């Protein structure tokens, strides 16, 4: 069996794109690094990670601004925060893998958002370009060494 020379990872894009669980990308990266195999993270795809909680104020203090400022802060929070949670669980329907993706009922600024269960990852449908290709704060562009003969 031939050794693996390069690991390239990318999420799906397009109207029917399914989200990639962020832990999968991290696991593949970690395995590649441990095996000293170059790792290239191409893209998140249509869906990408997003913060689960985006507070508009310190909950202990409460909002200190005007109603208009609060409305704007909530709008910005909703534009940045997760809209869904990827559970990592799936089922098969008509031969196609369907992932359990749950829409989050509370807004990112809501005090109802406190913690996620183990294995769940906050995500949102950003669009391919906006989702980007940063994995844990870094762009992974590694390539195999070129061999000249």
- Based on Cα principal axes, name the global outline: elongated
The largest beta-sheet arranges its strands as 3-6-4-5
Task: Give the biggest sheet.
Answer: 4 strands, antiparallel
Order of helices and strands: EHEEHEEEHEE
The unreliable regions are: none
Rg is 19 Å
Pfam families: DUF5131 (PF07505)
Organism: Planotetraspora mira
Protein name: DUF5131 family protein
Descriptive key words:
about 150 residues, alpha+beta, 4-stranded antiparallel sheet, 8 strands, DUF5131, DUF5131 family protein
What can you tell me about this protein's structure?
The protein has 149 residues and is an alpha+beta fold. Helices cover 21% and strands 26% of the residues. The chain contains three helices and eight strands. It has helices spanning 22-34, 67-80, 128-131, and strands at 7-10, 39-43, 47-49, 84-93, 96-103, 121-125, 134-135, 138-139. A four-stranded antiparallel β-sheet has the order 3-6-4-5, with no helix packed on it. It comes from Planotetraspora mira. This is DUF5131 family protein.
Summarize the structure.
The chain has 149 residues and is α+β, with helices and mostly antiparallel strands. It contains 3 helices and 8 strands, in the order βαββαβββαββ.
Architecture blueprint of SSEs:
Layout (H helix, E strand, L loop, with lengths): L6 E4 L11 H13 L4 E5 L3 E3 L17 H14 L3 E10 L2 E8 L17 E5 L2 H4 L2 E2 L2 E2 L10
């Amino acid at each position: 069996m031939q050794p693996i020379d390069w690991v390239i990872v990318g999420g799906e894009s397009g109207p029917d794109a399914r989200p990639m669980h962020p832990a999968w990308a991290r696991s593949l990266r970690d395995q590649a690094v441990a095996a000293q195999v170059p790792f290239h993270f191409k893209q998140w795809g249509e869906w990408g990670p997003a913060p689960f909680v985006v507070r508009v104020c310190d909950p202990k203090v409460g909002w200190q601004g005007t109603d208009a400022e609060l409305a704007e802060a909530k709008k910005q929070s909703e534009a940045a925060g997760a809209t869904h949670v990827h559970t990592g669980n799936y089922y098969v329907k008509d031969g196609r893998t369907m992932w359990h993706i749950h829409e989050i009922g509370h807004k990112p600024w809501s005090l109802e958002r406190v913690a996620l269960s183990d294995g769940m990852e906050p995500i949102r449908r950003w669009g391919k370009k906006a989702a980007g290709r940063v994995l844990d704060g870094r762009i992974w562009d590694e390539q195999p060494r070129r061999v000249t003969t």
